[in-house]
Amino acid sequence: MRWKLSRTVLKTNGVGDNLVEFNESRPDSPSGFASSQSPGTAKTGTCSPISPLRLKIDPGAKTTGIALVNDSNGEVVFAAELKHRGFAIRDAINARRQLRRSRRARKTRYRQPRFLNRTRPQGWLPPSLQSRVDNIKTWVKKLCRFAPIEAISQELVRFDMQLMANPDIQGKEYQQGTLAGYETREYLLEKWGRQCAYCGVKDIPFQIEHIHPRAKGGSNSITNLTLSCEKCNTKKGTKDIKEFLKKDPAKLSKVLAQAKRPLADAAAVNATRWSLFSTLKTTGLPIETGSGGLTKFNRSQQNLEKTHWLDAACVGESTPTLIIKCIKPLLITANGHGSRQSCRTDKYGFPSRYVPRFKFVNGFQTGDIVKAVVAKGKKIGEYIGRVAVRTSGSFNISTASSLVQGINYKTCKHIHKKDGYSYSN
Predict the structure, then answer these.
(1) Three-class SS string for 32-85?
(2) Checking DSSP bridges between strand 330-334 and strand 360-361, what pairing results, if any?
(3) Which uninterrupted H or E stretch holds 156?
(4) How many CB atoms lie within 10 A of CB 169?
(5) Among candidate residues 42, 84, 39, the one with its CA nearest the CA of residue 61
(6) Whole-angstrom Cα distance, residue 107 to residue 103?
């Protein structure tokens, strides 16, 4: 059964969080469907037939761009940027591992290492990478539930490694020389931080420069390429980099180390791209794929600025001439659902404070957005914000301007229950 989307509203709840509100109705239900005001939920309303939409996704290691585009006229009807917590998960796992190893070394509490006594299922990804796939999967399901999405476009390959390794590759995919150049340039921009490798200048047109000059046997390999401003490129000429930077050995070692260093963000995206592709195929919708170079080519042709949601709108060969009117992307941050750790530790790994086994107190949990109306006492007023629960029933509410303590749970009403994400614009 297909839902019809009539309009999208970004509604602010007063604490910097935006609530996405969809008005829609079922084809077989004249009364429609109503629910509470929360991100991605519905409210009773009427709708008129609209054209089917295409969901476009630009996966990233830190932030993923999402856009809904009407293929018939190119109008962008919704945009969002989803910030992942993959690196936070990685750091938390590293900290846990270090604590466990230090306990074994001190023999204060022996914990036998498990080594390889656990088998991993086929297609297993580390938790830091799996969280990225799961975040995108969650929002694809939400959008497919409320919008008439009939196709999906995904940036499957962040960088075409085969093309960069062999610039002379033949085939219909690489007949456009301009597009082939975009693959290499986009990779170098990401790798070198969008600045000149020699003087550090930013926000100017850059040139691709050979670290070991071609005139002296240098290759076109991606490990031999860097970014340079016109002034530095002209000054270096055909000099070897060791001769050019002989008066600045720190800069020389930094450039040589950076040239050999792989692109961590690109590695994370490339490691999850097929898992995400398989997840999207389970929706039953046709999937279109494209590379990062093609995305930049489409964006440059339409003179659009570089943002995650505009990159998403430009994914794939089906990208029409986009119509962007008053679109303000919804900024989504993945915060997770808390921790199962039942005892907090100090920096040495020893227990320092107790954590209750239960998360809910009188139907509320820390992270819920609530509205409290206090009619008597010292805290008379109306407060809207995120709540921190206590077993005593006396809650703290973080509003947009201050922290209000000692609010009784009986005065609180839910606006939005915690779902592991925070919202803003």
Answers:
(1) CCCCCCCCCEEEECCCCCCCCEEEEEECCCCEEEEEEEECCCCEEEEEEEEECC
(2) unpaired
(3) strand 149-157
(4) 13
(5) 84
(6) 6
State both tokens at 133: 């796939």
The pLDDT tens digits for 305-360 are: 989 999 999 999 888 889 998 889 999 999 988 777 778 888 777 888 877 778 89
b/e map 381-401, b = 16+ CB within 10 Å:
eebbbbbbbeeeeebbbebee
Report the candidate in 68, 51, 74 with the shortest Cα–Cα distance to residue 2: 51
Q: Apex CA 272: angle with CA 268 and CA 278, to 5°? A: 170
Please state whether the predicted TM-score (pTM) of the whole model is above 0.70.
Answer: no
pLDDT in tens, 225-264: 899 999 999 998 888 888 899 888 888 888 888 887 766 6
Cβ partners under 8 Å of residue 99, min gap 6: 345, 349
Tell me the one-letter amino acid at 222: I
- Indicate if the pLDDT at residue 287 is higher than 90: yes
Q: Are 218 and 256 in contact (CB under 8 A)?
A: no
Contact 165, 221 (CB under 8 A): yes
Q: For residues 43-54, b (16+ Cβ closer than 10 Å) or e, as one string?
A: eeeebeeeeebb
Residue 169 Cα to chain centre, angstroms: 32
Query: What pLDDT is stored for residue 48 in this prediction?
Result: 52
The whole-angstrom distance between residue 259's C-alpha and the CA centroid of its chain comes to 26
Q: Which two tokens stand for residue 303?
A: 């003179």
Q: Is 308 exposed, middle or buried (0-12, 13-18, 19+ CB in 10 A)?
A: buried
Residues 6+ apart with CB under 8 A from 291: 155, 156, 157, 158, 159, 160, 183
Q: Bridge partners of 394?
A: 408
Length of the chain: 425
